[in-house]
Design goal:
The structure is a homodimer of 523-residue chains. With 523 residues, chain A is mainly alpha-helical. The first copy, chain A, is built from 20 helices and 6 strands. Chains A and B meet through strand 1, strand 2, helix 9, helix 11 and helix 12 of A and strand 1, strand 2, helix 9, helix 11 and helix 12 of B. Chain B: This is argininosuccinate lyase.
Chain lengths: 523, 523
C-alpha cells in the first residue's frame, strides 16, 4: 500500500523539529511513478475489512454504487484507465472529515437519525484507523477514495451508510476534500518557508561584516555586505508566503452541498458544514463550486514562482561553491562524491533544487492545459488535477527543506572572498558619487571614472593605486580626500540610502527579520 | 513609429464608454511581430528634436552614455540583437513620470538645483509631447527607452540633463517604470473584467425563468436556470479580479533608489519618490529590488488563470451556437462567414477567445523559464520580460472585451431550448430526493431511480410518462405525489439549498451582483 505521498506530506507538519533525515534527495522519489503504475492491475492485498472477506475473488466484480441503470460492467482496461484510487487515496483524511461534518448536518436537519449519524461517525473513525495502520484494502474496482470509503462503511455498518450520500455528489465531495487538503498543504509550505527564512537569517547573523562582490550581468558591480545578499532571498520568500496566504483566503469557501451541479431540494444547511470544516462560507453558486479549478491553478502558480526563486538560490550557491568562485564550502553532510573522480565534492542538493523547479513549473502547465476550454460543469478530465498538485507540494516541500539544510551547512570562505575583492573595480560607482558630491553632473562623473578605470586596466592596477596626479590628469577636480572613497571597505561605508548595503541600513533590515521571524539572536 | 501597443492599452482605460469599435478581433494584430522587426534596423524617421538635427547621418555612431571606459563601439548585429527600444518605448509615460519624481527629490535633497529640476521637468514634458504627437525619433543606437529619453533631454536642455541619472541606475529605473506600467494595466484589466461581469449579469436579467440542461461530462445532468449558469462565470471573474488586486498590493513597492544593486551614498530620500509615485513604500532591500521579477510572474499567472476561464466561456458558447445544441444565436455583429460556404455563420470571436488563451499561458511560461536559475542581481536576460507582458495584457484585454460584446449580442433560443428539455432524464436526481424524503436511504434511492431510468430507456419515454403502477412495480414506495417531482419545471422548483438553482436562490445571487456591480435594473 503506497502511502508515500501522504507520508511525506504528513511529516511536513512537524518540520520545525530538527530531524529531517527523510529529506535526503534520494528519498524524494517522483510521485508520478504512482500514476504510471495505475495502468497495471493493482496487486490485491490481504483483506481485513470484516464484511468483505467473502468477495476477494477478483473475477466476480462488485456492482458499482451507481449501477442502477447499467446492465454491463466496464471493461478491465477502462476500469484501470479511469480509476483514481491509486493516487486520490491521499485525500482519505479530508474525505472522512467532510463526511463526518456532512453526517452531523444531515442528522441536525432530520434527514438521518442521530443513531445513523453516530454509527456513521464510528464507522468512519474505524476506517481511518485501518487506513493509518495499513489494514485497509484499497480496491481499484471501487474507483476512487470516496467510493472506497463509502463501500467499506457499508460493509462495516450496513444500512445507515447508504444514507451518507444524501444531498451530496462526488463532484462537491471531491472539491471539499481537495480544498481542505490544499489548505493544509499551504500551511505546511508556509512552515517550511519560514524555516528557510530563519536559516538564511541565522546564516546572515553568523557572517556579520563580510563584504562580497555584488554582481550584475555576472560581472563585478559593487561591494555589498553578505548579509544584504542573503536577506534579498528572505524578501523573495516573504512574498512567496504572501501569495500562498492570498490563495488560502480565496480558496477557503465550501463547495459541499453544491451536489452534482444544481444544489438540492432536500433541506440541508450548507452554512453548518462550512463552519464545521472551518471554511469562511459556502460557495455562492453551485455550478461554479463543482466546475472550477482556479484555486488549484492559483496554488500551483504560487508554487511555481517559489520554485523559480529557489532555483535562483540554487544557481547562486552552485556558482559560489565552484573552484572559480570558491566563496562557500558546503559541509560533507550536504555534499556528494563522484563514482569515478575521487577529488569531487558536489553541491548536489542545490543542483536538484535548481532542477526540480522544472517539475513544479510543469505541474502548473499541466493544470492550465487541463482546464483550457472545458465546458460547464464537472468533466472527468478534472480527475487529472490531483497528481500535479501532489507532485508540486511534495517537490516544493523538499526544495524548501533541503535549501534550509544547505544554509545550515555552508561556510563562507572569508579569506578567499577577502582576497578576491580588489579585482573588478567595485568602488568605481562610489568614486562617481564622490565627483557628484563635488558638483559634477552624474553623466560627466560616470565618464570621468570610466576613463580612470581604463587607465587602471592599462596599468593593471586598482583605482586606489592611482596617484592624485594621475587622477588630476583625468580631471582636475580630484583631491586627496578621494582615497576615503576608494577600496571596498570605504565604498561599503559610503552607502547610506534606505535599503542599501551600508552597515546601518543592513543592520536595520536584519533587525526587522529577527523580530518578524522571532529569532533568538543569541543562538 | 509603431505605437500600437500603447494605443491599445491606453484606450482600454476608457472602457466604461460604449464605443469599442477598435476591438473587433481583426484589429488585434499580433503584438509579437514588433519583436521580429527588432532584428531589422529601424527606419530612421524625420528628426525634429532641435539639437539633434545635425546628427542624422546614420553611419557616424553616437558615443554611448556609458562609453567612458570603452574604446570600440559594438557591432551592428550586437546592437540590433540587444536593443529594446522597439518594444520598451511603451514605457515612455512611466519613465518620464519616474524621472520627474526623481528630479524633484534630487532638488529637495540639494543634489541638483531648483533650476536644474525645472528645466528637467520642462524638457521631459516637451519630450512626452513629441512622443505623443509622433514627432519623436526613437533611435536603436540609443538602446532603450531610458537612454533615448535621457539623450533627447540632453539634446534639448544640455547640462542639467546629465545630472538626472544621479543616484539612479537603469536597473532600478526600468523596474520602477515596469511596476507603474503593470499597476495601470491591472487597473485597466479590472475595468474590463467588471465590464464583462456587467454584460453577463445583464444577459442573465434578460433571460429570467429560462431553464436549460445542466451538464456534467457533457451529458445531461439536471435542469438549471440559465441565470444560474451565467452567474457561475461572474463568480469566476470575481476571483480573477481578486487575484489581480492581490498582485497589485504586493507589487506596489518602489525600487527607485536601489540604483545598480547596492543603493547609494548620496543623500537621497527614497520615501519621497515612493510617495510621489503612489507606491506604498520603498522596497526594503536594494539587491532584491533590482533582481526579482516575481511580480511579473504573479501578474502573468493571474492573467493565465483568467484566460483559462475565458477559454471555458468560449467553449461553452461555441458549443451552444452549433446546430446540434442550437441554444444561442449570435448576432451578425459578432459573427463571420466562410469564404466558400455561403450558409456559414461562425462564432469566431469566441473561438479566438478560446484560442488566444494559449498565448497568455505561453507568456507566463516564457517568464518562468526566463527567471529560472538566474543569479543575483540584474542580468540582461531580464530584458526579455517586457514583450510577454505587453502581449499578455493586450490579449487579455481583447479577450475580455470581445467576450463582453458577444454577451451583448447573443440571443437564447427559448423555444429550441424548451423543446430539448424533456430528453436526458434531467429530473432523475429530484426523483431520488423524493424517495429520500420518503425515508429511503440515498444509495437505495439512487438504485431505484436508476432502474426506473432503465425502464424509460427501454420504453423510449420520460420518467413522468411512467404510470404509478409501473413505478410501484420497481418499488412500492412510489405514490401519486411523485408527479410533483417530475418534469424540469417541477424539478427546478424543488431546489432550495444555498447556492442552488432554485428560483429564490438564483434571485438572491442575482441581487448580490446587481448591487455589487451597481447595475441599474431598469435598463
Amino acid at each position: 500500500m503506497n502511502m508515500e505521498s501522504l507520508a511525506v506530506f504528513n511529516n511536513s507538519f512537524s518540520l520545525s523539529s530538527p530531524s529531517h533525515d527523510h529529506f535526503i534527495p534520494k528519498n524524494l522519489r517522483p510521485s508520478r511513478m504512482v500514476s504510471l503504475q495505475s495502468h497495471r492491475q493493482m496487486p490485491k492485498l490481504e483483506v481485513r475489512c470484516a464484511a468483505l472477506t467473502q468477495s476477494t475473488d477478483p473475477k466476480s466484480k462488485e456492482a458499482k454504487l451507481w449501477g442502477g441503470r447499467f446492465e454491463e460492467s466496464v471493461t478491465d482496461a477502462v476500469e484501470r484507465f479511469t480509476e483514481s484510487i491509486s493516487f486520490d487515496k491521499a485525500l482519505y483524511k479530508h474525505d472522512i472529515m467532510g463526511s463526518k461534518a456532512h453526517a452531523s448536518m444531515l442528522a441536525k436537519q432530520g434527514l438521518i437519525t442521530v443513531n445513523d449519524r453516530d454509527s456513521i461517525h464510528e464507522g468512519l473513525s474505524e476506517i481511518e484507523r485501518r487506513i493509518e495502520s495499513g489494514e485497509f484494502e484499497w480496491r481499484t474496482d471501487r474507483e476512487d477514495v470516496h467510493m472506497n470509503i463509502e463501500a467499506a462503511l457499508t460493509d462495516l455498518i450496513g444500512e445507515p451508510a447508504k444514507k451518507l450520500h444524501t444531498a451530496r455528489s462526488r463532484n462537491d465531495q471531491v472539491m471539499t476534500d481537495f480544498r481542505l487538503w490544499i489548505r493544509d498543504a499551504i500551511d505546511a509550505i508556509g512552515v517550511k518557508i519560514k524555516y528557510l527564512q530563519v536559516s538564511l537569517v541565522k546564516l546572515a547573523i553568523k557572517n556579520e561584516g563580510v563584504i562580497v562582490p555584488g554582481y550584475t550581468h555576472l560581472q563585478r558591480a559593487q561591494p555589498v555586505l553578505l548579509q544584504h545578499l542573503l536577506l534579498a532571498f528572505v524578501e523573495q520568500l516573504e512574498r512567496d508566503a504572501g501569495r500562498l496566504l492570498d490563495c488560502r483566503v480565496r480558496l477557503n469557501f465550501c463547495p459541499l452541498g453544491a451536489c452534482a451541479l444544481a444544489g438540492t431540494g432536500l433541506p440541508i444547511d450548507r452554512f453548518m458544514t462550512s463552519d464545521a470544516l472551518e471554511f469562511t462560507a459556502p460557495m455562492r453558486n453551485s455550478i461554479d463550486a463543482v466546475s472550477d479549478r482556479d484555486f488549484v491553478m492559483e496554488f500551483l502558480s504560487a508554487n511555481a514562482i517559489t520554485a523559480i526563486h529557489l532555483s535562483r538560490l540554487g544557481e547562486e550557491w552552485v556558482l559560489w561553491a565552484s573552484e572559480e568562485f570558491g566563496f562557500v564550502t558546503p559541509s560533507d553532510k550536504v555534499s556528494t562524491g563522484s563514482s569515478i573522480m575521487p577529488q569531487k565534492k558536489n553541491p548536489d542538493p542545490m543542483e536538484l533544487v535548481r532542477g526540480k523547479s522544472a517539475r513544479v513549473v510543469g505541474d502548473l502547465v499541466t493544470l492550465l492545459t487541463l482546464c483550457k476550454g472545458l465546458p460547464l460543469a464537472y468533466n472527468r478530465d478534472l480527475q487529472e488535477d490531483k497528481e500535479p498538485v501532489f507532485d508540486s507540494v511534495k517537490t516544493i516541500l523538499g526544495m524548501l527543506e533541503v535549501s534550509a539544510e544547505f544554509a545550515q551547512n555552508i561556510t563562507f570562505n572569508r579569506e578567499r572572498i577577502q582576497k578576491s575583492l580588489p579585482a573588478g573595480h567595485l568602488d568605481a560607482t562610489t568614486l562617481a558619487d564622490y565627483l557628484v558630491k563635488k558638483g559634477i553632473p552624474f553623466r560627466t562623473s560616470h565618464d570621468i571614472v570610466g576613463r580612470a578605470v581604463a587607465l587602471c586596466v592599462s596599468k593593471s592596477c586598482e583605482l586606489q593605486a592611482l596617484s592624485v596626479d594621475e587622477l588630476k590628469s583625468i580631471d582636475p577636480v580630484f583631491e586627496k580626500d578621494v582615497y576615503e572613497f576608494l577600496g571596498v571597505e570605504n565604498a561599503v561605508k559610503k552607502f547610506s540610502s534606505y535599503g542599501s548595503t551600508g552597515s546601518a541600513c543592513v543592520a536595520s533590515q536584519l533587525d526587522h527579520w529577527v523580530t518578524k521571524l522571532e529569532i533568538n539572536k543569541g543562538v
